[in-house]
Amino acid sequence: MKDKNEIYFKWGITAVAVIVIALVISLIFSKLGIIASALKTVVSTVSSVLYGVVMAFLMAPVYDRISAWVEEILSSFFPKWKKSGKWAKFIATLACLIILIFVIFALIMMIIPELVNSITNVIGYAPDGMSNLENWLKDILNKNPDLEKLVIGNYQDISERISDIATTTVLPNVNTYIKNLSSGVMNALGVVVNIIIGMMVMMYLLNMKTTLSSQAKKIVYSLAGVKIGNEIVTEARYIKNMFEKFIVGKIIDSIIIGIINYFFMVIIHMPYALLISVVVGVTNVIPFFGPFIGAIPSIVLLLLVSPVTALQFAVWILVLQQVDGNIIGPKILGQTTGLPSFWVLFSILLFGGLFGIVGMIIAVPTWAIIYRSISRLSEHFLKKKGLEPDSKHYMDLDYIDEESKKYIKLE
Length: 411
Fold this sequence. Notes:
This protein has ten helices and two strands. By secondary structure, it is mainly alpha-helical. A two-stranded antiparallel sheet has the order 1-2. A hairpin with a 6-residue loop joins strand 1 (397-400) and strand 2 (407-409). The longest helix is centred in the middle third of the chain and has 94 residues, at 174-267. The radius of gyration is 29 Å and the shape is extended. The protein starts with a helix and ends with a strand. This is ATP synthase F0, A subunit. InterPro entries: AI-2E-like. Its main location: membrane.
């Protein structure tokens, strides 16, 4: 009876635990809007600090190299000087700040004039571009009068509808658009302020990262003990290295792709070379879908100039994506994540759906960490049960013999 009571007691505890977990999950989903709103408020409040954390994370490798290099030079010239380390850190911090300001300023000076010029050209060229596109369609379809009549009729109908929308919807709501534009300008100013504060936060974090790391380790070991503490520290180091290698590598890869695209467009005399190359380079940070996300607005822009040019660019983007995916990307990133292609695609779709563009950027390293953690946990529990952790033993498996633990393959 005692054994049965113990079994019933365990089943009861399990049932209660399941009910409690189900209630907690349902409560979380029912309050998801409130939780999301609260998280959004917290993130917007500390956004400048987050900017600083991201900047410090990206500039940390540069800071470490410059600091070590300057300290080595100072130590060789002044062997007995005790403050060479502090001055090396100061110079490295200043160098990181100058590099960051230079990069931001260079991007602004490249993008803004080109963007203004492109918008001006598009506005001036739009009527002729629409007419050229219509003539081009007529030239293609002149051999098939029925199809020509259908396509051109629909094309003219769409043009008339766009004109109607412009006169009946756009013009009466100009005041609303101006208010929205003013709000956008204020948001842009807020981003500028966050970037400036973020730079200040970055300087503090770069100089304090060793101290903060040691304090975090001390807290972990004090709460978790030596064995679990070692596991946590190892995992934290793996996560840091994973994000650092992937994101920094992806940025370098995207810069190379943007430069290659720029030279190609200049060589064959395509318009908007600088603007489109910046768009292609920036969106290339997003794995898998990035080149296509950048290509769509670029193709639309080129379509107003020449449909043939737009088609050439579309073919070029496909070629460039293959070169990046098979040659440039693997050379720079290597086997950073170790994820199969299916899980790369799955993670981008999942995190992109949940968190948008930012989710797509962090999807691959984040899922690689989750994938590795699940693999390690499953291997740990398999070993505790006396089973083989290697996946090859489960290929074509029918069942495992309960007594002998022998792996019986499918016939």
